[in-house]
Structure formats: structure tokens, C-alpha cells
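Researcher: Quick sanity check before group meeting.
Model: Go ahead. Protein one:
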Amino acid sequence: MFDWLPYNTQVVLVGVTLLGVCSGVIGCFAVLGRRALVGDALSHATLPGVGIAYLLAGGKHFAFMLLGGFVSGLLGIGVLSILKRFTRIREDAAIAIVLSTFYGGGIVIATVIQAQASGGQAGWDTFIFGQSVGMIWDDAQWIMALGLVTLVIVALLFKEFKLVAFDPAFAHVQGWPARAIDFTMMLLLLVAVVTGLPAVGVLLMAAMLIIPASAARLWTYRLSRMLFLAAAIGAGSGIAGALLSSSVALPLGPCIILFAALFFLTSLMFAPERGLLARAFQRRRDRIALLADLRAGKEPI
């Protein structure tokens, strides 16, 4: 399908397409469960682990750095859970604490990497800002494997995720292991974040989780349709961003996010019922109907 493109661009397209699908799907549960900022905190929490793994490996080792990011993000989930459960700190404050602390630690480690005498920081910036240059087929395979695992788990636990995302208190009362299900969703969010680090980067990965899901939310009231639309928007953003990045030599992550934002703005304007234009037309119709009732001598309801 993309045989006319350079081999490296084809590799990137494969990776970011499935990344967009995975991020869009799991991002829907974050949006519906009001966990949008949690994705941002997790993306920043992975930075220290990526840096430590980079130092231990002595350079860019894709799988090892993803593992480091996962462990660091898991620690961030643990700290966030402890702050929420055993202190009186509100969730937004706990998220801010985790985000800023882990990101600060990551910046310190980044400074150590940049100050190395060998200057061996090649590949490090990839995990901060995202980059298409240098992604090889093995990297794309890791992205595909992690993305497919995430999608399979979502398919298997769809009913449970749906229940906990909409009403965790009701799920707990009904005897469902709401905390375990919620923790599983958090883990999948973390897996999605770690998967997208080399393509989109730490700073922008949260946007990849939230923007496609938020755009899809404007088009439908059904969760199944929302998942499909979010996956399509995520994949479309990835493909468009990769093509733009490869054609004009721009960073991959920002290109993907800009296209995702374009999809969101389009949805915000033109989505039926929830779009700004649709709501403006509905207000105009209501005003006309009200004036007609007043002229006819009817009392407004």
C-alpha cells in the first residue's frame, strides 16, 4: 500500500498506526472515567526509568528502555494510589505531585546523560519529543506487540471496564473487584504510554491518549462507536503525522498531535448534536419556535 515510500517511513507508519488505534481505545476509558490527567502523570513518570535504563544499557536499547519506563510508571501508579488512599490530598493535587516529581527526576537524569564524556546521548531525545528517524523494524514490532496485547485485554474485559469507567461505586456494591479492574485500566494506560514513547515522546503522549477519545466523544453516545471512532482518529493522526514528518523533516510527535488536534477541532465544530454549529442551530430553532408560540398566544413550557 505504501511501497512508494522509503522503507523507514513504512516502518514508522506501521508502528504509529497501531499506536494510534491502541491509544484511542484505552484513552476512551480514561476520558469517561475522568482520568485524563492520570495519563499525563504516567507519561511524565516514565521519564526517570527511561533515563536510568539508558545509563545502565550504555546507550539506546529499545526494549530495555521501555522496561525501565514501565517500571518507573508503575512506581508512579503506586505513589498516586498511596496518596489518594492514605492521605487527604485530592486527586488533582496527587497527580500534580507525581507528575512534577518524576519529571524533575527525569530531567536530572537527562542532564547526567548529556554531560557524559562520551557524548553518547544519541537516541535519548527520541523518548522525549518523539522521532521517526532511526526507528527500525524491531522497534515497530515492539510497538505492535504491546499495542495488540492492550487491545486484546480491552476486548476481553470490555464489560468490566465499561462498568467501572461509568460507575465504580455501583460496580463495588454489586460485588465486582472494582479496584482490581481500575488498576488493570491504569496498567493498560501505562502500557499505551510506554508503547508511544519512541514515536510521540514523553511530553506529548498524554495528548495522544486524550485527544482522539475526546474527539470521538463528540460524535456518539455509544461506547462501542466511541471506541471505533477514537481508534480511527488515532490511526489517521498517526498516518498523517508520519507522512508530514517524513516529507518535510519535522519531529514525528508534534506532527501527530497537531493532526489529532485538527480532528478534534473538526469534531468540535461539525459533530451532530454536540458540535458548536449543531448547538447553535438548535438554539436558533428553539428561539424561532418560542417566538412562534408567543405570537400564537401560547405560554412557553
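Researcher: Fine. The other one?
Model: Protein two, sequence then structure:
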Amino acid sequence: MESQELLEPFVRMLEAACPPAVVRAIEAGESAAPLWQEIAQSGFLDALVAEEHGGPGLALADIEPLIAALGAHAVPLPVAETMVARALLAQAGVAAPDGPIVLVTAVAQPVPCGLVAEHALVATGEALMLCSIAEMSPAPTGVTHSLAARLSGIPQGPTLPRPTATLRAIAAVLRACLIAGAAARLCDLTTAYAAERVQFGKPIGRQQSLQQMLAIMAEDMIACRIAAQVGAAHGIDVPMPVAATAKITTSSAAPRIAATAHAVHGAIGISAEYDLQLLTRRLHGWRVADGSESYWAQLLGTARLAGAETSVDWLRHSVFA
């Protein structure tokens, strides 16, 4: 199936079920159950489940545009994480629960959407463990309107083998795809605002300095898109250098994109009524989730120094193979 055939109905579903008003309501404490029910009934949650386990057997690259769409719509639920979790559980012969599942790659770090999840797939070293999120004692991070949670409990539940790739590498690619989607949406919003906002008798988008800012923003957005596609191309069994490249590229671009969006919009961009802050807040959260660019840069640099090839050959074989 072509990605576009999947993307169009998926986006229609998100636009109908998850407008900005719903995002704000969930962030304010309203139940996310109605939105989750809409997403679950769409059938997309089992997109990565292999055919022998009753799913369509799509690859991560096939649904990369869908994950980007989740980022573009600031969906306040761990939809992409649940897709991956259900595929891993099916592969291990463990029944998947009905509710949203977060991926916990490090208990000490805030987990995006931890406050609205019902279950967690936790990396415990050599294995993964499925547990109720309540057992992990989720607590707010203190960031306004954030749905991320700090976890402190001890997981208890069925275990399954660790995939070929670490859970953190898989999660890093998901964050890269989400950042890429939000970045594209921010570029659209910012460019449209610059064309519509009139100051001193002409649209501010005609100012050369602002055009330069928008051009750099577009370059960062395209780099994020390419990085996300490279990361997803290897599927769930993503090699560490590939995951690191995707996460470094998108995480480093995220603050620049957010800063440019707010600089162009001015004061309206931080207002609660305007949609911009729904996206920029998530960019900053996804940037640090599952390892920031500095964390992954250290891993990537260590891997590169361990090889005897030239850098070009190493990149060709380890990242772009």
C-alpha cells in the first residue's frame, strides 16, 4: 500500500478527532479516552504488527508520514509508541492491552505522554517489561500543560526479549519523526503569518531579514524530514548510528525552528489561544526525550572512532547503507 493511501484517511481522522481545542482540553485535565477510542477504532494502532500475527505487516518507513502527522497535529497521546509496542508484543506472543502505551527507555528521565498512558513498555536491560503505568508512580514534571511524567516505581509484569535494536534507538527514531512533522507544520504557520501580517503598509514577509530567517527555518525543516526518513528506513531494528543520526539532526534543529517561529509571530505566538505554542512546546520536549543531541552525538562519535574506515566510508556503511 502506498504511504499516501494511508496518510490521507489518517490525517482526516486526526483533523476530525483531534483539533487544537481537544489538545487544549486534554492538557487541562479532561479525559483522553474519547480521542483514544477514535484512534483505536481506526485500526492504525496495529499497523506494524506482522501478518503472521494478524496485522498488516507494514514497515516503519511506511508509517513514517503518519507519525509525522501526529507531530503536526500535536496529538496528546502516545500513538506512535503504542504502534511500536503492539508490534513488539505481538512478535513475542504477549497479548497487547487496549490502552495507550508509552516506551520507557530510562526511568530517570521524563516520559512524554506518561500522564495519559495506561501501560508502559520498560527497558530493563536485557529484556522489556510490560506493566501498568500506575505501578510506575507517574508524577507531573511541573512544566505547564506538559503531559510528560516522571516515573519512580518498580515495574512488574510480563517480560519479552529485547529487540535487535535497543528500545531507546527505536524511540529516538519516533521522536525524530514527530519533530519532523511538527517542524513542517510550524513552517506552514510561520510562512502564512508572515504573508498576512501587515506592518508599515506591507506584509512583514517582504522584509529581507525575515525572508532569510524563513529560508533557514525551511532548510532545518527539510533536514528533519530527511533525517526522519533515514531513521525509519531500517524499520524497528534500527542500527544505533542510524538512530543517532536521526535524533541528532532533528533535536539540534528543534530549538532553532521554535525560536524562529516565535520571533516571526511575536507576542501572539506565546498566547494560550494561538496554536503555535502547542507545537513549539512539544518540539522542546521531544528534543530531550530518549536522549538529547549531545547524548546521541557522544555515542555516534564513539562508534566512529572505533572504526578504521574513512568518515565517508563509515557513514556510507553504517548510516546510509
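Researcher: One line on it for the slide.
Model: The chain has a mean pLDDT of 94.
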